[in-house]
Structures are given as C-alpha cells and as structure tokens.
Amino acid sequence: MMYQGFLFDLDGTLVDSLAVVGTAWAKWGERHGIPASEILAFIHGKQAITSLRHFLPHADEATLREEFLWLEHLESTTLDGIVPLPGARTLLTYLTEQQIPWAIVTSGSFPVASARFEVLGLPRPEVFITAEQVKKGKPNPDPYLLGAQQLGLAPELCVVVEDAAAGIEAGLAAKCAVVAVNAPLDASHLKATYRLNRLTELSITPVGQGFRL
Question: How far from each other are the two terminal CA atoms of the chain, in whole angstroms?
Fold first, then answer.
C-alpha cells in the first residue's frame, strides 16, 4: 500500500511527557480525593475535558471550565523532564526534507501541546490539530479526519502514528493506516496496521508522489 502523509500524536509518540502528566493529574486528584492510579488508568490519549467530565460527572460547565484552566496552566508551564522520544526529531526532519506532508493531531489543548512540541526544537507544521478544533476527541475519528482534510489528503492515504489505545481506535475509525508505537496492553485487541516497539523502527521508502512502509 502506498501512502502520502503522516498524522502524528504528540504525547507518548513524539515526546515523553508521562512523568509531567502523571504529576499534574495526581495533584488534581488530591484536590478531589481521587487516587492517582484511578486517574492515570483512564486519561491516556483522551482530551482533558473528557477526563474531567468522567471524574466529576455532577459538575456544571462553569466548574469544569475552572478545573480545566487550573490543569491546563499546570501542564503548560511544567516542562522539566519532557524530552523528545528517540528518533522523533530525526523522523520529522526527514519527512520535511523529503516533502512528505505531516501533521500533529493531539488531544492536548493548544497551550499545552505548543509548549511540549517546542521541546522537539523543530518548526511547527502548518497543520497542528488540538483539542479546541474538534467537538469529539479520540477515540472518535474526528481529530484524524480533520488532520487529513487539512493536509488535503483522503484519510486512506494517511498514516496515523499513535501510542495510546484511544488514539489507535480513532485512527482506525478514520480509515487511516495506523502505526502503534510502544502501545499499552489495553490496546492489544485493536488491529493496528503496524506495531513497533519504538519510533526508530519505522522504515519509509519514498515512491513517486508517496511512500511505502
């Protein structure tokens, strides 16, 4: 199969932010008496507002907004410990040099995603999909459908690169090919197109106007 573009998740796929995310949500959990283990078992790959609604099912929208802004500020200003994952910077640089279209499609908000992307030390791509741009986040296909649309490509010509079960499910639902990188056990039932242990294992062969994996 030949493809023409990439749609990358950010956290856990291109940057290692696990420790920062865990600390931020653990602090939030302390405010509400919710164990960190319970929170971390749910949030991976999902929009923050989705997780907040899950853990505060009776909260009104004003309260949820306040909680979201508190969490967003903490996550967007805590960058110590966030590092590029092996191969991320090299891969994105290679795609840019080969003029292979690529986009970021993240569940994070724009302030959080922007701060974390800067860790890669690369120019931001023209297509940068964040939580604010879609009504339904992962595992719904909407984020990846929007990413493909903004690249000007059919979803079937795009390769989604993901680490989380919610993101893998979203990519498959969008009819994209999905590369699952270091995916957790809760994603083992999802039939990703390719499975890799790390990003450095991804092999790309340019062919005409596209590429093969």
Answer: 8
